[in-house]
Amino acid sequence: MSCNFAVAFAPASVGNVAVGFDILGHAFPVIGDRVRAARSATPGVRITAVTGITAELPLAAAANTAGRAAQSLLAGQAPDWGVDLLIEKGIPLGSGLGGSAASAVAAAVAVNELLDRPLSRADLLPHAIEGEAVASGSRHADNVAASLFGGLVLTVGGDAPRCTQVPVPAGIRCVLVHPHLFLSTRAAREILKPAVPLADLVRQTANLAGFLAGCYSGDLALIRACFEDVVIEPQRRHLIPGFDEARRAALAHQALCCSISGAGPSAFAWCEAAQAEAVRAAMCAAFAAHGQPCDHWVAPVGGEGATVLERG
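Given the sequence above, the corresponding structure tokens read:
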């Protein structure tokens, strides 16, 4: 049964997961965005306010990831009513934590609850991607799929994306460190070279395949050996003061990997639970040595995707 209003939460996410540029992502539900969607007699989509840790977002629906996702969804369903959105940001802007994707996902999930015949989560994915593209300048689903479905997600298929949940070995933790910097996703994409040397392509492909095989088999040694980005990270790491030192510190404390979360500047590391606190402290100390205070969290990899918190 449809309702008059709904509130949805969509978690932050780690995009790329080092070896899967634009195709791998995992949820990080410790933080996220909320969107309240309410039916309105006036057609169209309106954003009534943006609250939370930042309000520096456009209120024009077409220029806002949540607003654009809602527009896309309603355009396909053509109801005789409109929607008012209230966005509560829990993810910093330009952090590499999938904030633009989370807002788009939360909006799509909340608006979907208002429909007489709600769509499946899989059918919501293209609308959330449409919203996220407003901020990133391209259509990619790594953050969106992770935020929508939860867990570690592999997304392939371009305009008709297909998502596969990838198992994560038990006991693995994600250490996520956010230095207080702003890094535009669009700007971080613009510096990337359009061509990749053949040797780098082969190595990155091997790393992706080995990483996925390690996840499915629970082989931590294989994951550790293959969890290295040789294409994107080398082009972006100079944008993040202290990242190289944080990466070395994490690996010195037995992390399976340490790389850039999404477009940065946040960094993430995977490690076994027993090493998580030492890895977190080492990464934060490395950033602090470069004058970069950080927010930091530890959580199991993946976790739940978007959820409906209220409806009525």
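The radius of gyration is 19 Å. Try to locate this feature in the token string yourself.
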